[in-house]
Design brief:
By secondary structure, this protein is mainly α. The protein folds into 2 domains: 154 residues, no CATH class; 120 residues, no CATH class. The chain contains 18 helices and 2 strands. The chain has a two-stranded antiparallel sheet with strand order 1-2. The radius of gyration is 24 Å and the shape is globular.
Length: 334
């Protein structure tokens, strides 16, 4: 027997397996495809601002640009070319054409990457001159992540074309892959981090005083002067509602990340998030619709598809035989 001490070189198998199941379970690309079909058209039709809004920063000094993504672009594109209406309208048009292609699922990965990068450039330029907002950025990052994942493996023109080739089994709603979940998981984690950043900053900067009611009254009153939201005026006249609203805000923002890991409370946390954001919009005119639409990444569309499939086929002998068939062990596919 050797007396040489041994040191562990890898995490325990249980933790390693749990990590793999969290990021890379063998499943279909149905949730990815449906998220693509929800997020892209919603952005193009309802959430993206008109092109003229992206031209407003052209009146500012380009020397004040401080966003990292724009500085990276300026390393390749001369500022005299970038800071022109023709260039920005070209980026906007390219991103929108790519969005249409991503919606129908033609050249899906390339289309999503071009769309996400294009709108990130436009948004980065829009908020490069002092005032900084962030509500749209995470949505566009989601486009890039969907473009890096197999979101066109089903419910797309790419899938329709490839299923007529020799590799038909790798495409369609029944095809399984171990790379079909990580992008949705990462979007969930980014949402959790964004919420936790907002909640923890309130606690670190103001502590429990942020929940004393007066802080929220002041914030809502300031926005009422700017936007004149009637619900905001009503809220600031109800002190204890301000206390409850401030407490709810901190709790939801600080602990939203738990919904990423604990499935049992997910629906309640998402419902609380919708109530929170609608309340913020009605009282302070602050639109966080992009974050609410991103909640779609938490929906298990594959489970819903299986239930619908079983409900539709359960009365046929072939379906009953299929449902009685023992399930194969879950594996990983490339």
């Amino acid at each position: 027997m050797s007396d040489t001490p041994t040191t562990p070189t890898s995490p325990p198998a249980g933790w390693r397996d749990a990590w793999i199941r969290f990021w890379f379970p063998a499943t279909t690309a149905v949730p990815l495809a449906i998220c693509r079909l929800v997020l892209v058209p919603t952005w193009l039709l309802f959430l993206s601002v008109p092109p003229d809004d992206y031209m407003v920063p052209l009146t500012y000094d380009p020397g004040r640009i401080d966003q990292a993504i724009i500085l990276a672009v300026l390393a390749v594109v001369p500022v005299d070319l970038f800071h022109t209406e023709e260039f920005l309208r070209g980026v906007w048009l390219t991103a929108n054409v790519a969005g249409v292609l991503a919606t129908i699922g033609l050249f899906t990965r390339t289309s999503l990457l071009v769309m996400g990068t294009g709108f990130l450039i436009l948004i980065g330029h829009l908020w490069s001159y002092g005032e900084l907002h962030h509500t749209e950025s995470l949505y566009c990052i989601a486009f890039v992540l969907l473009g890096l994942s197999p979101s066109g493996r089903c419910y797309s023109m790419d899938s329709w074309l490839r299923r007529r080739s020799r590799r038909a089994r790798a495409w369609g709603p029944e095809a399984r892959s171990d790379t079909a979940t990580w992008a949705l998981r990462l979007i969930q984690c980014l949402l959790g981090i964004a919420y936790f950043s907002a909640g923890s900053s309130k606690l670190l900067d103001g502590g429990l005083y942020w929940m004393n009611g007066e802080t929220l009254q002041t914030i809502v009153l300031t926005d009422y002067v700017r936007f004149g939201m009637p619900a905001g005026l009503w809220l600031i006249q109800n002190f204890w509602l301000c206390v409850a609203g401030a407490a709810m805000t901190v709790v939801v923002e600080t602990f939203f990340f738990v919904a990423v890991f604990v499935r049992g409370i997910r629906r309640y946390m998402l419902a609380a998030g919708v109530v929170l954001h609608m309340g913020i919009y009605l009282t302070m005119a602050a639109p966080f619709f992009t974050w609410m639409v991103l909640y779609v990444v938490f929906v298990d569309f594959e489970a819903l598809r299986r239930r619908a499939k079983q409900a539709g086929w359960a009365s046929t002998p072939a379906a009953e035989a299929l449902l009685r068939r023992p399930r194969r062990a879950r594996g990983f596919t490339s």
